[in-house]
Queue: 3 jobs
Job 1
Amino acid sequence: MEIEPFPITGEQKSRNKSRIIQKQKHNNMEYTKLLIEKQDNICIVKINNPAALNALNTTVLNELDSAFTEIAADESILAVILTGEGKAFVAGADISQMSTMNAAEGKAFGEKGAAVFRKIELMEKPVIAAINGFALGGGCELSMCCDIRIASNKAKLGQPEVGLGITPGFSGTQRLPRIVGMGIAKELIYTADVINAEEAYRIGLVNKVVEPEALMDAAMAMAKKIAKKAPIAVKYSKEAINRGMQTDIDSAIAIEANLFGLCFSTEDQKEGMGAFLEKREAVYKNR
Ligand code: CO8
């Protein structure tokens, strides 16, 4: 039986496998800036405030926080795609909201965004950023807390914050050097240069560049490919990489060994290896 992750209206029930969830109350949370759609076991979260180029204000951050909490708890979702409506993925944190902040408010806003992004990064499901356009400042930082980034060839990425008198404050000073290396990260952050998708691919900031009209298909194809694999093995792989990359190599190898061992207590390990030996396709149960 298919699980309904969020309340669905009658009109949406008439749609078969693809359902859009919008402006609905769930856990007292109403989504006004997100479109959330589920296609089989893939969830697509689209930031939907194109008039402001999907800039991250408190409302958008709260809705992302709530949406990812719900998605994390939904066992029927095996992979997530995060994208933006219109010509931006996200053109940064909301400059008009930040413009009047004092130091304490700025710190609190930075911590709020960082906490939401960390939740996405730590979620036990793979998240693919489908970067449809501008991914600047907080938008580039949001894409970097995702596991994988696929960009439209129209996308522009960068950390323009020093041009506004601030540092990257949603963990960009930390994730960008971890992804592209310290030298390139420092160049991008100090110069505030905005780069195109090809350059982002060259420096390893995005995994793949595709035509704009092929973006969602490419993200969906990758999400589906992942969703066909053993979910617990994918989850443990994510945990091993995330935790292992933040510690010394010996501790990292111990983390990996522990998670590798845990795989052998799953039904899916028996199924995966059994299917190989029986020369058939494995059917995983996320158990
Ligand atoms: N914040 C608020 N509004 C924005 C933002 C933003 N980041 N980006 C665009 N908008 C608004 C514009 O003000 C405009 O609104 P309006 O129509 O009411 O004038 C609307 O979106 C459309 O934008 P443009 O007319 O500028 O569209 P263009 O196609 O001409 O330009 C650009 C597109 C180049 C992307 C341009 O909008 C731009 O430069 N935007 C700002 C990009 C930027 O500097 N982003 C980084 C912001 S700082 C940040 O993200 C810090 C993150 C860490 C925060 C830590 C907290 C302490």
Job 2
Amino acid sequence: MRESGPHDLVDVTNRENLETVVDEYDIDTIYHMAAILSAAGEKNPWLAWDVNMNGTYNVLEVSREKGVTRLFVPSSIAVFGPETPRENTPQDTVLKPRTMYGLTKVSGELLCNYYYERFGLDVRGVRYPGIISYKTPPGGGTTDYAIEIFHEALKRKDYTCFLREDSTLPMMYMPDCIKSTLDLMDADLEALIHHADFNLAAISFSPKELADEIRKHIPELAVKYEPDSRQAIADSWPKTIDDSAAREEWGWRPGYDLAAMTEDMLRNLRTQYE
Ligand code: VAH
């Protein structure tokens, strides 16, 4: 990406820094992806509040002041909590997350929708499931086992998973994540009923199902399951998501199933380990 145009570092908790960069590069569209994720946020909830809440507030305010045309602020399935139906979780349902990350994402959704209603700022967002990529290392998330297992399968054919084998969670391969983000940002504003809080789904699987799929390529893979503190977070999240609003309002359709993602992940990672 750095080769594709100007590149600069921005601290989203520093409003003046944001204002300077938006002015310097005459920015009209912002994808605000900075956040402290679920597991890292439980280790440092104060930092998670500062980055996720003050950072999002700064991006909204600078976008409003500078006349940014369109803004993307992702949410997450982490907005759901133990009171939320876990199967086919509805678009509009109870949101009582038990993590700092989750509550900052609920607040972020409400703040973004306020900026649309009150100021007409065209801000959009989706509730990302766990995102799986071969390009970036795991980063403090509860779903990171689904990235780590690929690296360990290739390196050592052995992995110790920090979730129970039956912990089914909603997941998505990075190409689908990028496609969904761009599809929503390209959608006609008049067609949108929701704005910053679309449910989004692709594939739901458990650690055992993922391990079994990888074994179709690496039969010797051995996996142990030793749940840690992240198990409680995973148990508070949905297993499957109803993303009918995204499908109806802007035509969302995922492109990768578990088999296709596994094959592509291994094909791209092999070059790092062979
Ligand atoms: C996390 N990967 O695990 C992130 C994501 C749905 C989970 O928000 O915290």
Job 3
Amino acid sequence: MRRALVAGNWKMNKTIGEARTLALEVAEGVAGEDLSGVEVVLGPPYLALSAVVETVAGGAIGVAGQDCSHHPDGAYTGEVSVPMLTDAGATHVILGHSERRELMGEGDGLVARKAQAASAGGLTPIICLGEPFTTRKAGTTLSRIAHQVEHSIQGAFASPPPGGFIVAYEPVWAIGTGLTATPEQAQEAHAFIRERLEAIFGLECAQETRILYGGSVKPDNAADLFAGPDIDGGLIGGASLKGADFLEIIRAARTDSASI
Ligand code: PEP
């Protein structure tokens, strides 16, 4: 049985003080009821990372960087390394987010190098992939996803990490747009990703890997989206910025038993 996971991507939102307040609201909400069936990860901006780590200390909530460099140190102005993230207390790192792919021109090869560096440095990567609208319209979504699995994941790992990967399927056209994939579209993509992982890394890895859905998940659509047998939780942007909404989405993941 895979444990559901819900991760919040706060993007470029929240000052340090605001981040503390939101992290505390989530931590208290998670502790106040039985949400232990769901792994929760918060993704604040870098400057708020230590404050969030301090705020959630002692609980089971993970904290993710929103990106990392594949270099350990050096003359890379503006970049943040894996050792810097682990030193600040991060447990996870979001990689290959479509905003980085689109706005910063990151490709699968770079995502793979970052995933390799993160994993070697003790961070769990949350590797994002998904198709733009033109690809969906052209009917080539699955081949696009297969390419991303091969180049962002297979390209980084000769063998899978214990417990499998964390992959986020995020159709680009659904991120921050209010549009969502239908539960059927999401399930089809997730099942396909799992199938590809099985072909590359074997059955055990495919069964253990958590595949999160991301793209305008809200409290009122989360349960339907998470109901698919291959959907193991979500990567949440906008709705993770409000504690009450994020907690509602975590509850929706709990009711989904994420069965294999
Ligand atoms: C995201 O940022 O990964 C995301 C899915 O955003 P939103 O939930 O706002 O669509």
